[in-house]
Design goal:
alpha+beta, 5-stranded antiparallel sheet, single chain, 288 residues, 4-stranded antiparallel sheet
Length: 288
């Protein structure tokens, strides 16, 4: 089973279809359905396909796709995951959008853009202190390349302008898009950029938020799939398997064994730094 098949089977769309949740309205990456818990006749439950989360504004039920399936079937999350993985995915949906988006660059091209982009950014003292409290050393912070995310519009426009002057093509790069004045800009949140490496190349950027987002989300992808000429980032997961006295991170599900799924890259780096002498790591496409 390849990575895309795994993502399809644990996706919120597949869970919605497996449970027969009634769609009321959908737009871009959001689907509104009748809540199966409070049984509201209105589309009070919001399904977000970008992070496989759900939340009902009426009864405040919330969580992620596997938990939604488990709660409706009165089974554990582990059993829910097993059932979803062992059954074919149904990802049919009515999502529509009129926004023109770009095809994602290959990893070599993404590395060029992200390297040049991050070189123009810095790391604030507040974020340095936060990372030190997380257990990183100054050497590790510098080596990984954490950066503070600019949030002022004029600053973002200027950064993009200078990148373009250097010959950097921003189209097809997740996170970048054109604003209403047709100027290149990028999505921003108050937080820290985390470079995600693929064979020593930056294949994506993860955002560690200063404040927890909806449904207790602390990390999100640097993505612009809902913006004009934007590009959607891959929603990659990390699957952890114990192997002897080592911790092995792979996505091969041929062997039956206990698993842990992790998507928070701050945690991934912390584990990698702590146990680097005692583990093998593979995170979907991305290698540390």
């Amino acid at each position: 089973m390849n990575q895309q098949e795994i993502l399809n089977r644990i996706s919120i769309i597949n869970v919605k279809n497996k449970l027969g949740l009634q769609e009321i309205y959908s737009k871009k990456d959001i689907i509104y359905v009748k809540c199966p818990f409070c049984c509201s006749e209105k589309g009070t439950m919001r399904l977000d396909i970008t992070n496989n989360s759900y939340i009902c504004k009426e009864c405040e039920a919330r969580g992620y796709s596997i938990g939604l399936y488990a709660r409706n079937k009165y089974i554990s999350n582990k059993e829910a995951y097993r059932r979803l993985i062992n059954d074919e995915a149904d990802i049919s949906n009515n999502l529509t959008t009129s926004i023109i988006t770009n095809v994602r660059k290959n990893k070599e091209e993404l590395d060029i853009v992200y390297q040049a982009f991050l070189e123009r950014l810095s790391l604030s003292s507040d974020h340095i202190m936060k990372l030190l409290k997380y257990g990183f050393t100054m050497e590790e912070i510098e080596k990984i390349g954490f950066k503070t995310i600019p949030t002022q519009e004029n600053q973002k426009i200027e950064i993009c302008r200078k990148l373009i002057e250097e010959g950097i093509d921003l189209s097809g790069t997740p996170g970048f898009f054109k604003d209403k004045k047709f100027r290149w800009s990028f999505k921003s949140h108050k937080g820290i950029f985390i470079p995600i490496l693929d064979n020593c190349k930056i294949g994506a950027l993860r955002i560690h938020l200063d404040e927890v987002y909806s449904v207790d989300t602390s990390d999100i992808w640097f993505s612009s799939g809902q913006e004009s000429e934007g590009t959607k980032a891959n929603n990659d997961i990390m699957i952890l398997f114990p192997k002897g006295n080592k911790i092995q991170f792979i996505n091969n599900l041929k062997e039956g064994r206990d698993i842990i799924i992790a998507s928070e890259m701050i945690l991934a780096y912390k584990i990698a730094n702590t146990y680097k002498e005692h583990m093998i790591i593979r995170s979907s496409q991305y290698y540390f």
